[in-house]
Amino acid sequence: MKKISVSPTEDQYAALLARVSASRKYRALGIPDTTLRDLLEKTLRACSDPRQVEKVFRQKLHNLLATYLGDPDYTMMRQVLAALPNQPHAAEVMEWCAQLLKAHASTRERLPMLSLFYHEIFRFTGTPRVVLDLACGLNPFALPWMGLPRETAYYAYDLHQPRVDLIDAFFQHIGQTGSAYHRDILVEPPEMEADVVFFFKEAHRFEQRERGVNRQFFHRLRTRWLLVSLPTVSLNGQRSLLTSGRRLVAEACAQRGWQVSELLFDSEIVFCIRADA
Ligand SMILES: C[S@@+](CC[C@H](N)C(=O)[O-])C[C@H]1O[C@@H](n2cnc3c(N)ncnc32)[C@H](O)[C@@H]1O
Prior knowledge:
This protein is an alpha/beta fold.
């Protein structure tokens, strides 16, 4: 008997998105609808076999959210925060922040060099009035080591709702100007003007989401300094990523006439791009 293949309908795709975002792995994260739709569109473009769509889509989401990089207990940390002093440099506050920074691979790797890292960055850019921290993860909890005044407006963006909520609560608690936004920065890049944009340890993942996308993304940001960082070695420490990282940034900045300087640390390289030229 001849097999009849039926192509999936809009309804079936809507059901797939609802099923995935309600799954045990993702339901607490509040992934923006725009992200899910964007990933599904990219999957459908790349995938000619309808039976592979769900598998490829789930793989893309897994890579994007990278839950394997680690997470703290957000509810518990929020309760602890409520009882802490309001001064960002109080020992208990710094200990609470350090606990959070240790919970995720990206910030854990930066922890041993945190003061030096931000000292070198702001020595280079000057003290900013407005910072955007894009795909911020848990990095805003490094604020006590950044040496920024409370008047510096710090805007953090991530698509992980519990992270965003805890960062916002932290800013309010210590009286830092700014806020945290739950938003997919690739689908909706921030329009706000900034002195400094941090885009740390995410540009290589953007390339996995869509090859070549950093070029257009960088050009849409409105900032004097765009600081893009990348890891210098792979997660297992086996492979140097310096050459591929330099290539990625060179390609994204090609034909712009932007000046790019490097700050090289043990585990991370920061490309300081003068992006208002
Ligand atoms: C590898 S971590 C890097 C965290 C941080 N930038 C750092 O270096 O410490 C990636 C973070 O980016 C967030 N993210 C990934 N893609 C994003 C997007 N398109 N919009 C907003 N956040 C995103 C993830 O939720 C995660 O918290």
